[in-house]
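Work Package 3 (structural annotation) set out to generate three-dimensional models for the target panel prioritized at the project kickoff. During this period the team completed the workflow that converts sequence records into discrete structure tokens, so that structures can be stored uniformly alongside our sequence database. As a representative example, we reproduce one entry of 367 residues exactly as it appears in the project archive.
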Amino acid sequence: MKNAQDWLDKIRALPIEGNVRIMNVCGGHERSISMAGLRSALPQNIELIAGPGCPVCVCPEEDVYQAIQLALHAGVILVAFGDMLRVPVNVPKNEIRSLEQAKAAGADVRPIASPREAVKIAQENPEKNVVFFAAGFETTTAPVAAMMLEGVPDNLLLLLSGRLTWPAVAMLLDSGEPGFDALIAPGHVSTVMGPEEWLFVVERHGLPAAVAGFTPVSLLAAMYSVLRQLLEGERFLDNCYPELVRPGGNFAAQKQLAQAMQVVDSNWRGIGVIPASGYALNPEFAAHDARKRYPDFDAAGRKRAGQMPPGCDCARVVLGKIRPNECKLYGRACIPKSPIGPCMVSDEGACRIWWASGIRTNAEADA
């Protein structure tokens, strides 16, 4: 079995001419790449680009705003995965800008790590409605679907902000200016949805692709695969994470998603509406839909105002158009202690990952 050094040696031995841009679309991949120092270990003409791999970063601002208003004014217990509590919305500084600030102001906001915790909180508080603000990609949304199908207490409502991963990549490729030459496909998503979801990259756009796990060995194996494909003129989808990724994916999880939810056109913060890129509850679960139970708190009117904060380049970071430290706010006004944009909040956000890996200065300042 090859180790990371073996794969690095094989990559360095490839006669690659010119620059090659390889995009990953998973926050876990970006974290592994950055923490292992793979960018500095690879030949200089190979650029690793962080793509749309952070569901917290693309969660619509109006959804976060709605969750804050429900927590403050609807008398509910608001539960959400931890990263969502610190995501700021676009309001004046003297107003409450995050669920964390709403909690400090007296709202009952609780971080959770799994859907089962939301069910438990609802069972323990039958006199109050519990709103589960559920943002995430397929791997996070599938357990939420399973929760709904298992049956939930009458007082548990869902404010769903689930997204699919592949449509954002398809949008980039269809734009004609994708900004990358090869793709490292996400391992966890492929485990659930099947690697076949990424065949369109190869078949429709003629780019090499490989599914990777989260170790440097798996990531470097995937990078070697796509680089070799470019050199040899081959195009195929390689599975470099066979330990967990199987043809077809997890059929049980896919069935649960289809039974509990439907795929709809959805807004991505700072990017806009991407067709068939999000999840909504199926009609039979309408009684548990927080948007239907609390229509007065619908924040749809904020869609125009609900983009990234002024000066924040998170949207271009998410799409791989710029590096995280090329945002003018990075390392200046925007740091993990006081984030301006969502990419500096989430552990899957490229800005937060780069900061944690030791990149603390702005590219403009370095220049």
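The first strand starts at residue 20 and ends at 24.
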